[in-house]
Amino acid sequence: MLDLSFETPKPKVIQGAAQDWELVIGLEVHAQVSSNAKLFSGASTTFGAEPNSNVAFVDAAMPGMLPVINEFCVAQAVRTGLGLNAEINLMSAFDRKNYFYPDLPQGYQISQLYHPIVGEGEILVDMGPGVARRVRIERIHLEQDAGKSIHDMDPHMSFVDLNRTGVALMEIVSRPDIRGPEEAAAYVVKLRQILRYLGTCDGNMQNGSLRADVNVSICEPGAYERYQETQDFSHLGTRCEIKNMNSMRFIQAAIEYEARRQIKIVEGGGKVDQETRLYDPDKGETRSMRSKEEAHDYRYFPCPDLLPLEIEQAWVDDIAASLPELPDEKKARFVTDFGITEYDASVLTAEAENAAFFEEVARGRDGKMAANWVINELFGRLKKEDHDITESPMSAAQLGGILDLIAKGDISGKIAKDLFEIVYTEGGDPAGIVEARGMKQVTDTGAIEAAVDQIIADNPAQVEKAKENPKLAGWFVGQVMKATGGKANPKAVNEIVAKKLSS
Amino acid sequence: MTDLNALTIAEARDLLRKGETTSVALTEACLGAIEGAGVLNAFVHNTPELALEQARAADARLAGGDAPAMCGIPLGIKDLFCTKGVPSQAASAILNGFKPEYESTVTQNLFDAGAVMLGKLNMDEFAMGSSNETSTYGNVVNPWRRGNDETPLTPGGSSGGSASAVAADLCLAATGTDTGGSIRQPAAFVGITGLKPTYGRCSRWGIVAFASSLDQAGPMTKTVRDAAIMLGAMAGHDPMDSTSADLPVPDFEAMLTGDIRGKTIGIPKEYRMDGMPDEIETLWAEGRAMLEDAGAKIVDISLPHTKYALPAYYVIAPAEASSNLARYDGVRYGHRAKLSQGDGITEMYEKTRAEGFGAEVKRRVMIGTYVLSAGFYDAYYNRARRVRALIKRDFDEVFAQGVDAILTPATPSAAFGLGEMTDADPVQMYLNDVFTVTVNLAGLPGIAVPTGLDRQGLPLGLQLIGRPWEEGDLLNTAYALEAAAGFVSKPAKWW
Question: Phi/psi class of residue A65: alpha, beta or left (left: φ > 0; alpha: ψ in -120 to 50)?
Answer without folding.
Answer: beta
